[in-house]
Write a structure and sequence with these properties.
By secondary structure, the chain is an alpha+beta fold. It is built from 3 helices and 7 strands, in the order αββββαβββα. The chain has a 7-stranded antiparallel β-sheet. The termini are far apart.
Length: about 130
Amino acid sequence: MSFQPVFVQFWEKVKESIQNGTYAKLTLAKTIGDTELKNIYVRPVLLENNVFSLSLSAKYKMEEIESFHTLDEAFIVLAPYINDPFLTALLFTTENDITFKLNKKRVGSIIEQPPTFKNAADVIIEMKEKGII
């Protein structure tokens, strides 16, 4: 069984959290062995003219590379990193923490736990105030 359909379900939860104004943070983490790429952090940003975008910060051993993408583009950029090298994607919202996890057999699962964050990301709060979401 492929893990991609489960990651698609997870990404739907990411989109819902942004639309609902509950998104706090998203991190791709937990690699196998010592990899060059350590983490990818996904933060919402407002660009010129209040254009919503996602900032993807890829943390490598020696550098950090930031890129900006639409919600749909971010999925296309992030999806290939699942299973190579990341086994976990953690979505933090004000309602709950949602974890996408691959087990040793590379079967994907989604786990929900009580929220770590009480407040949404500052940009999400700003977007609510401006009526963007």
